[in-house]
Amino acid sequence: MKNEYLFELKDFHVWVGEKEILKGLNLRIKQGSVHVIFGPNGSGKTTLLNAVMGFSGYRVTGQILFHGKDITRLPVNERARLGIGISFQRPPAIHGVKLRHLIATSAKTNGRLLDEYARKLNLVDFLERDVNVGFSGGEIKRAELLQLLLQDPDLIFLDEPESGVDLENIALIGEYTNHLLGKKLRPQEDKTMKELRREVSKSGLLITHTGHILNYVNADVGHILMGGRIACEANPQEMLNTLQECGFQECYRCFRKEEDHVKR
Amino acid sequence: MSNDKKTLADDLDLSGYREDAPEHAEIEDLSRLSPEDQQVLLMTGIDPTGKERYGSFFQKDHTVVHCRTDFEGAEIMSVTAARKKYDGLKEYWGKLVPADKDVYTRRAEEHMEHGYYIRSLPGAQVRYPLQACLYLTEDKLAQDVHNIVIAEEASNLNIITGCATAPHVRSGLHVGVSEFYVKKGATLSFTMIHNWAEDMAVRPRSAVILEEGATYISNYICLVPARDLQMYPTAILKGKGSVATFHTVLLARPGSLMDVGSRVILQAAECRAEIISRAVSTGGKIIARGYISGEYPGVKAHLECKGLLLSKKGNIHAIPELEGKTLDLDMSHEAAVGKIAQEEIEYLMARGLSEQEATSLIIKGFLSLDIVGLPENLQKELQQMIDQTDTDAM
After folding, report:
1. pLDDT tens column, B236-266
2. Domain residues of chain B, as ranges?
3. What total number of domains does chain A contain?
4. Which residues of chain A lie closer than 8 angstroms to B355, CB-CB?
């Protein structure tokens, strides 16, 4: 039984000021599994990730378990050190700190691998630039991926990895998001299957408004976040198809019917 | 300039300082200094091995104990020797910083014990810096120096000056008059690093004059406490197309007062200037001044003061000033005093850095300026100095 779930949220409530944004979420992610949360704008998707990371400005009740350990009150860096990583939707710019220096200071692995991944993500020149200063949308997301690849966490939060990214970049971002999640198993000339299967034990929680990233990233379980609650546990591709056909309106209908059930 | 007396307080009590210091023996090689002294020098930009330096000048208290250069394109010697050799340096002496300017320039004139003279010959390309160090080893000593720097026509001169106190010294007074002449088409990079004892009072008085097509790049760095530091160097852009840049990096800890600015007077066509300062207070007071005067149509200048205030006991007062005296000027300034954004700290913490590590990295980033036109090695050395600054103690 121990560690059957890598990550668990139990009756997770989050307030911003007086306003309750998340109203008792329950979520369980198995080792090796990638979950997607769909939700309309303002449904609290980013709040969920930020609060789970332990960022300031949120009041939290309930429990966050990681590897069975209660991390609800740990500082941000200790959560990161335990093996949780996050790709920010809109990370801040850090003036005067070179991307290479930040990675050298923070990442688990380094050296040759850093330059290799930087080359693959077209970020070689960016290593000598200030973190996120003057980066375009796609450059920001690739830089986030690069940092995560070297941080090598067991659980990865991805906040709208496709937002602000042009079509050219999205395939590359999708490819390396898969790689990061250990989901890329298509044979490739320059990589062995062993390398590709690098870490199938990786788990992920991906947040998306458009769902576009699912054309590139393989996810296992989909959820809807709406009205501060999580609903559904279904095949993410099917959910996306329904959403693309009917919009979130369909979820509202479903929600209203199941209101009592959701409240439990 | 004339407004000095109004803006800068002359409130130091000068009676507690000694004028006399023992004579020191000559030092053949700076790497023979004690390891403690060498460590101080390294943190002041002075390389005791002289590697990657074209020449060195070392004044200990009132004695010039070491002076040499193997490079034929430049002269480096005590200003006293230079005045003997060049008929009192009449063309230069006191021409930019008049002896009667204020109480400190008068002091320097009366009590002057050497200082350095550095001159690059016409057309010389000084690839590695020349280094000059003014070192105080006696407690409560007053060190008064007068420096003259001349970059002759079309030469490229690069100087690092380190002013420091020996580890056991607690207090003292340092007064330095410096006059810089950057001639037609010459470039002078002047990097000054201060590494003082906590109880030092420091009064540099400097001015620079630029001829046609000349470039002056000044970098001033003070990351250690100084009880009372006050300086406001002036660059006069007299020649067409001359360019001046001032970069200042200050870190004031509790008990420090740093009143530091840069002043540029643009007097000819196509002149440009930039003044950039970064100030961090962890409890000390910083007055970050800047003044730009546009006196010829078409000149361009920008002034930027940014401050990070990290303690409620600290105080940062940014005073950027622009004065337009003719039509068709392009002058601007921006000033900001604030705190470290929590979002930035948490971003770094999400990568596994502790709050203290994140804060320290952000402060060091804030202080590190990418200085255009500075030799790469020197840029690296300065970065190292900032990286090694002990921000944990804050």
Report:
1. 999 999 999 999 999 999 999 999 999 999 9
2. 4-342, 343-394
3. 1
4. 75, 77
